[in-house]
Every structure is written in C-alpha cells, then in structure tokens.
Amino acid sequence: MDKEFKDFLKRYRIEFAIAALVAVLVIQVIYTIVPYEGLREFSGKYSGHYKIMLLVFSAAIFLLAWISYPKIFKFKVLLSAAALVSFFIFMVLIYVNIQDVRVMGIRLDFMNMTWYMSGKFILYFIITLLNVNLLLIIMSKASINYENGQKLSWLLLAVNFAVFFTAVYALSANYLGSDETRISTSFIKGFQRQFIPFNFLLFVLIVLISFFNIEEEHNYGSIIVGIAIMNFYCVLTADKVYQVRMSAIVMAVLLIIGILVHWLNSLHHKAHYDPLLKIYNRQYMQGIVEGIIDVKLGDTFSVLMCDIDHFKKVNDNHGHEAGDIVLFKVAQAIREAALPQGIACRYGGEEIIVFLRAKGGDEAKAKAEQIRKTVKGLSVKVKSKRIKTSLSIGVASSGKPHRPAEKTIKKADEGVYKAKKRGRNRVVFIK
Asked: Which CATH class is domain 282-430?
C-alpha cells in the first residue's frame, strides 16, 4: 500500500468507519441466524430495558460532550451529541404508547397514531432527520467560540424537537396522511418512495465531505462517518425494527468511544504541537532526541535546520501579526515538503528543524533543496501586500549508530550560520 495513502488513512482515523462496517456485518449475521419469533420474544421481554438503555446512553453522551467541550473546544462534539440524543429520545417516544397527551385539543398517541398510521412514516422521518444533522455537522467548523458553540448546539436540539413534534402533531390531527388531504397524502407516499435514494445521497455527501475536511488535530469527521454508516443501515432495514434498535445502540457506543479517543488525542496534540505553527513543538523534538517519543530515526538520519531570512524585517515593516502569518505559511510549506520521511518541529523563534529518517548525504541535501525552493516560491498575502520568503538551511547527517542527535543538530545549526554568511537563501551541508 502506498505510503501517502497509509498516511491519509491514519489522519482520517479510518478505524471508526471500519468498526461501523464490522458492526453492520455482525448485526446482519445475528438477525439472519436467529429466528424471527425468537427475536420478537426477546424484544418483548426486554423492551422496557431497551428504552431505559437508550435514555442512559443519551444522558452519558450529553454529559460527556458538555464536560469535554471546555477542554478541547471541539464544536462538532456538541453538535453530534445534540443530534444523537434527540434521535434516541425520538426512538423511545415512537415505541411508547403514551396516553392522554394533548396539544391544542389534539391527542398525541405516539404508537397508535404515528407508527401504524402512514406506514412507519415517523421512523423514516427521524432516520432522515439524523442524516440531515450529520451532514450539517460534517460541514460545520471544527472549533468555534465557546458561548456560540453551546448556543448553537442547544439550537440544534430545539430545532430537532420542534420538527419532530410538528410532524407528530400533523399526523395526529390528520393534517398528514388523511385520505381527504391529497397533497399531504401524496407527500408521505412520495417521501417513502424516495426514502432510500434521498438518504443514500445524504450518506454519500457525508462521506465525500469528510475526505476533504480532515482536521489538523485528531480527525472527528471519521466518527461522524461511522455513525452515518450505522444510520444508513437503519435506512436499508427500516422495515425490520430489531436491526434499527441494535444499530442505535452501536451508534451510542461509537460516539462515546469516539469522544473519549478524540479527547485524549486532542490533549496529546496540545501537549506536543505548537499552537501557532501547527507543527510539533520543541518539547516533542526533545522527546525524539532523547528517544522518549516512538519515532525511529534509524542509524542513518539527517537534520535540516531551517531559518527564515530577514524575518525581523517582516515584523518591523509589517507588524507581528503579519510575522505570525508568514511563520505559519512557511512552517506548513516546510512540513508538506518534508513528508513523508521528514518530521518538522519548531526549534525556536523563526527556526524550524526537520528530522529525516533513514536519509543521509545526497538524499538529505536534495530534500533540503526541495524545501528551500518550495519556500522561495511562496508569496504570503497579508492584507493588500505580498511578502516574499526564503530560507537558509543547514544540513548534517549521522551515519554512526548511537551517535547523539545533539551533535548532529549542532552541526546543522553551524550550517545555517554559514548559509547566512554566504548570502542567505541557500543550503549548506556540514560533514
């Protein structure tokens, strides 16, 4: 398998989508082997337990999302919690025969009036509503202002409930599904006919957008895709209640595990990434040097010390905000050019260090030259002005086993000094 494709799968966190597919396979096998009468008897016996379980999962997801949000500021966590909690509550409601609930004189008998009437329209409706929610989540920003994030997630929850109860009220009042109301009856029949194609389109959009919207930190989109896979399985098995019920449980487990894993990875990201440049920080670099971090440089490795030329002038002439933008753009250019063998870390100030695994001599010089040309080709736009950039790069290699990395770093630093002395925008290799 191609190294870049492997890196993509790793950044995408494909394991959540795989887990969902495995869960679908397991559920399908179970419900193919076990006789229908056995399923019906088991479901009837534990129906009350199932509803309680959904409510417990709803509470757990709600609390976990709201507790984690101030720690990791992931807006999508709140939105996914709001979407799934509302879906679970709707699942409980449509399977419960609630008596004497009246709104504006209309009796809302959930089981009798909305389930059997109109051919399971409400179940189809809430499955589709969840898919619409998932599409909105995958398209939303990863992070957002703390207070706005809370308000918008509450708004999503409120809108879901408003839409659900509006549909229930319309059915109960015979505004929908009445033989006398041809438009609404046609709408329901049309909705049921287009139920699978429409949800398939939503599912495809969720997956495609997730590919082009991978976050810099731990990717949360793959968790949404995992839930979307389970929900699309609900679409395909909507006429088979037991598969839908089991899929809802898997969705809950996926989201809880996903939030916890994302939380841990985000904390790791904060500990090891520079918040401005979005590359590894000095602490992570030190961990590589000391062998604490699980990065094997190999007996032969190289160090590229990159220093931005005339960076002080950028700050003096254009301001520190412009300097920060230039730093970020250059750091990202170095990181991309260094891949797949290179690991870019912030060394300090405007200096960025690149560790090249299992590369030395000519290969290291060639990679350094590639990085230099990439940065030389940058033209960073700041407001109405464009700022040209260039690098002075010092390169040093180590071909001796167990040679301290600090010595190689020191030699690369000497190379930077010589590159600047020789006129900047050049690569100097120190043997």
From this structure: alpha beta
